[in-house]
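Researcher: Let's try something more involved. This one mixes different molecule types, so please make sure each is placed in the same coordinate frame as the others.
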Amino acid sequence: MIQIFVTGGTFDKEYNFVSGQLYFQDSNLPEMLERGRCTLDLNVRTLMMVDSLDLTDLDRENIAHNCRGVDTDQILITHGTDTMQQTAAYLADANIEGKTIVLTGAMIPYAFGSSSDGFFNLGSGLAFVQSLPPGVYVAMNGRYWDWDKVRKNRSTGYFETIK
Amino acid sequence: MIQIFVTGGTFDKEYNFVSGQLYFQDSNLPEMLERGRCTLDLNVRTLMMVDSLDLTDLDRENIAHNCRGVDTDQILITHGTDTMQQTAAYLADANIEGKTIVLTGAMIPYAFGSSSDGFFNLGSGLAFVQSLPPGVYVAMNGRYWDWDKVRKNRSTGYFETIK
Amino acid sequence: MIQIFVTGGTFDKEYNFVSGQLYFQDSNLPEMLERGRCTLDLNVRTLMMVDSLDLTDLDRENIAHNCRGVDTDQILITHGTDTMQQTAAYLADANIEGKTIVLTGAMIPYAFGSSSDGFFNLGSGLAFVQSLPPGVYVAMNGRYWDWDKVRKNRSTGYFETIK
Amino acid sequence: MIQIFVTGGTFDKEYNFVSGQLYFQDSNLPEMLERGRCTLDLNVRTLMMVDSLDLTDLDRENIAHNCRGVDTDQILITHGTDTMQQTAAYLADANIEGKTIVLTGAMIPYAFGSSSDGFFNLGSGLAFVQSLPPGVYVAMNGRYWDWDKVRKNRSTGYFETIK
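Model: All components are placed in one shared frame. Result:
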């Protein structure tokens, strides 16, 4: 069984046509999994729906607590891209033994249709969580990195390897 | 470096609005990789553009020949779903040593927009080819199978494990 | 009140991922009207769901009968493009007095997403039916034609004025 | 010939994936007209690319000046929805004789894919401009209103008739 924890981020942002602002409603994950014709044994749980710039260490402890408590060793976390590496570092430091934890997200909301990278990232995130050894990883741009080997380049929007 | 071989299949079918028929034009892969914001070192080569029901063993030998000849051990093949397992079996039998070969495809053409599973499958196929040990695999429905453990259920359109 | 009669055509075709064939399910009109945020007073009724090449004069008499019987003088008909002008001619000949009847359709199914012209054509068809004087019209390619001034060019897929 | 003047608004907003903000790039109109398979004789000119809340009377005079100067009596203006009725009132007051001027827009950006109403509104706007008598109109929600008979309901996002 694979556990998916939803934490928000651009991946799940929606457009409010009255205010013209981006906001969070329900996660798009169930629709995405159905469209992907996914037959994996999955459990999806929304822990929070926040912009990752607003994530606190209390939120991160909440995520870590849920990773520890869940009865599987394959965990995918959807997360905003701005602090994905911070949360990955927090989880790597949280003494969660023997589990493969993959963080993924999107640069363009899934709700924005044919320009979004979210559906591709979900496919790769689910694949990595099934096939990588225990550890904490970031999966973006078709690739994966160990938690301490990656950073987001804020000016290009791409993830890069830290040498 | 990852080698992608394009062979056609529903993944790359287009709709001809004059005739009302499905047909093949150029592959959608370059557009999909850009949309996925993919930064992997990739080489994409179209070997053929055919419905997999029309694939012959000569075509399969062509695919095997290209798998042998390419200077990388990570190979992703986009392929029609109807005979994906036959091509996987052919490649498993073709004495291609030390390479991870993943076949993926789509049940709904990428060109048909928001209902297609192709973009999700591309993400998972690229992830599996980076993380699975040498062998021949089929990647569909978010999952992967060894070449001899899977079949497509023709009445549901889902891939199933052979016991 | 505007009456919409659905008769099928490419406009409402869907892709069957098991058979790989195009087919008809329910009309996409309710979803399209909601997406268009349409607040017109509308009644939608499906008369048939057929490829317009399969339409018989019995079907056309059925359409004419419904046009006569409905208690409004604004009628939009969604229709396959191949015989749109034949049905328009049949209706022009059917002694339906004082009603504005507009036929529209699509070259690419609405279900095929971002390449379809159907949503644009629905917008223009609804506008023409509100603003043109009584008569029978074909609305395609952003334009409208009197029923006897238009033909579909089968090789280009565009509608043309008959001189 | 139909003249289209682009002024910005939600219709043409894009998502900046680096900043997470909405912004204006080039207009989506050329792509939309091609997708709509539009064969009207059209001229498209971008006058400005602004959120309609930022439109000044100087901008409105610019629009009026262009409406007066152009050598056609059919003019479609794409415009933000928040002040669409103000601009319509300005143009009605600007002594532009004998021209049909239609303002349209969108509640959800065209770039946001399958949820946007923009493509439908473009179809209806183009149809109304061909078929309504001289005057200034607002076309939204599948309907049209005389410039002085409509207002946007800011809490629902729908346009309403002023009694």
